[in-house]
């Protein structure tokens, strides 16, 4: 089973705070930082793009930027995100008719590949060919577009279905994940955990990171028995 990875989705109101929080998360035990790129087309909101990520990359030594591309034309941004220091480029299956071409473009820039599905997309939409060409599969547990939404339990079976098909892939969950919802995700087989509100609204974010990781490790140990 792949290792537990915590990828905080950083909430910040200015750039200085963004880099400071990223540095704090890494010191606090986070392996990755989840960077939500929204384009105002695939989702209604606009967040940040490659220029901001390039600054973060310079201001946060050792950062692994897990770039969640909530964008309408995923192939278009591959070079910019690679130049900005993106380590993993995760695009939405719903946003392209040719996922293998997007994957080839990402590989050509030496980034890891993630493929995301929104709540209404079945796990079977991820074909074996696409999954085997990817490093990570992301099951959204809220509708993409903003943080702070309620976790959708009905998405959890998709995690279990993908884990059964792909025992060695990283499987990420994102949206409404925190201490109250981590156990079902971990039990279903997710090993990469994104959390925004649950970490940043907590009095001690480092404790939440540690407890999310413990939940994944415990679920993995139980599954191995
Ligand atoms: O991409 C998204 C939502 O579109 C997520 O990354 C959220 O931003 C995570 O925040 P919480 O749901 O954990 O508050």
From TrEMBL:
<feature type="binding site">
    <location>
        <begin position="145"/>
        <end position="148"/>
    </location>
    <ligand>
        <name>substrate</name>
    </ligand>
</feature>
<dbReference type="Pfam" id="PF00834">
    <property type="entry name" value="Ribul_P_3_epim"/>
</dbReference>
<protein>
    <recommendedName>
        <fullName>Ribulose-phosphate 3-epimerase</fullName>
        <ecNumber>5.1.3.1</ecNumber>
    </recommendedName>
</protein>
<comment type="pathway">
    <text>Carbohydrate degradation; pentose phosphate pathway; D-xylulose 5-phosphate from D-ribulose 5-phosphate (non-oxidative stage): step 1/1.</text>
</comment>
<dbReference type="GO" id="GO:0004750">
    <property type="term" value="F:D-ribulose-phosphate 3-epimerase activity"/>
</dbReference>
<keyword id="KW-0862">Zinc</keyword>
<dbReference type="InterPro" id="IPR011060">
    <property type="entry name" value="RibuloseP-bd_barrel"/>
</dbReference>
<feature type="binding site">
    <location>
        <position position="36"/>
    </location>
    <ligand>
        <name>a divalent metal cation</name>
    </ligand>
</feature>
<feature type="active site" description="Proton donor">
    <location>
        <position position="174"/>
    </location>
</feature>
<dbReference type="GO" id="GO:0006098">
    <property type="term" value="P:pentose-phosphate shunt"/>
</dbReference>
<dbReference type="GO" id="GO:0046872">
    <property type="term" value="F:metal ion binding"/>
</dbReference>
<comment type="similarity">
    <text>Belongs to the ribulose-phosphate 3-epimerase family.</text>
</comment>
<feature type="binding site">
    <location>
        <position position="176"/>
    </location>
    <ligand>
        <name>substrate</name>
    </ligand>
</feature>
<feature type="active site" description="Proton acceptor">
    <location>
        <position position="36"/>
    </location>
</feature>
<dbReference type="InterPro" id="IPR026019">
    <property type="entry name" value="Ribul_P_3_epim"/>
</dbReference>
<dbReference type="GO" id="GO:0005975">
    <property type="term" value="P:carbohydrate metabolic process"/>
</dbReference>
<keyword id="KW-0413">Isomerase</keyword>
<keyword id="KW-0119">Carbohydrate metabolism</keyword>
<feature type="binding site">
    <location>
        <position position="68"/>
    </location>
    <ligand>
        <name>a divalent metal cation</name>
    </ligand>
</feature>
<keyword id="KW-0464">Manganese</keyword>
<dbReference type="InterPro" id="IPR000056">
    <property type="entry name" value="Ribul_P_3_epim-like"/>
</dbReference>
<keyword id="KW-0170">Cobalt</keyword>
<keyword id="KW-0479">Metal-binding</keyword>
<feature type="binding site">
    <location>
        <begin position="196"/>
        <end position="197"/>
    </location>
    <ligand>
        <name>substrate</name>
    </ligand>
</feature>
<feature type="binding site">
    <location>
        <position position="68"/>
    </location>
    <ligand>
        <name>substrate</name>
    </ligand>
</feature>
<dbReference type="InterPro" id="IPR013785">
    <property type="entry name" value="Aldolase_TIM"/>
</dbReference>
<feature type="binding site">
    <location>
        <position position="9"/>
    </location>
    <ligand>
        <name>substrate</name>
    </ligand>
</feature>
<feature type="binding site">
    <location>
        <position position="174"/>
    </location>
    <ligand>
        <name>a divalent metal cation</name>
    </ligand>
</feature>
<feature type="binding site">
    <location>
        <position position="34"/>
    </location>
    <ligand>
        <name>a divalent metal cation</name>
    </ligand>
</feature>
